[in-house]
Amino acid sequence: MNIHGSRARLLALTKELQGRWESTRDSWNDAKSLEFEQQYLSELLAGVNRAVSDLENLDRLLHQIHADCD
Question: What residue segments make up the domains of the chain, in order of their start?
Answer without folding.
Answer: 3-69
